[in-house]
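SUBJECT: A protein chain and its fold
Encoding: whole-number codes for local backbone shapes
Chain under study, with its fold:
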Amino acid sequence: MANTIKHQGIVENINGSHLSVRIIQTSACSACSAKGHCSSADSKEKVIDIIDSSAPSYRIGEPVMVVGETSMGMMAVALAFVLPFVLLILSLFIFMAVLNDELYASLISLALLIPYYYILWLNKARLKQKFSFTIKPIK
């Protein structure tokens, strides 16, 4: 069970097999007893879309547990931050060696991120299937 992410949420909307669940995402230190004296404690409300064949068995307003795998989080961080950073650094070194101009090499390297994120955007349907959450009732 250590490789799962769990958030308690409330069912907001049910449309066929599609559920919308509102969760409150908190930072790790928001449960700290000194959070009133610290500016780093924060929480955000988010709506998670879940496709589940047993969606009609839930009711709007029912508390549920949203469960995902930590590997989804790691993959999301890799796609959004690690791979673009590696692409940026490698392309910067390559263009610096080829062009011998720091300004143009850095601008071209930054411009390479545009097609990268565009390709991610084009594949959002496939990524949405890969990054899917499950839902469990709270007993």
Summary: The chain has a mean pLDDT of 86.
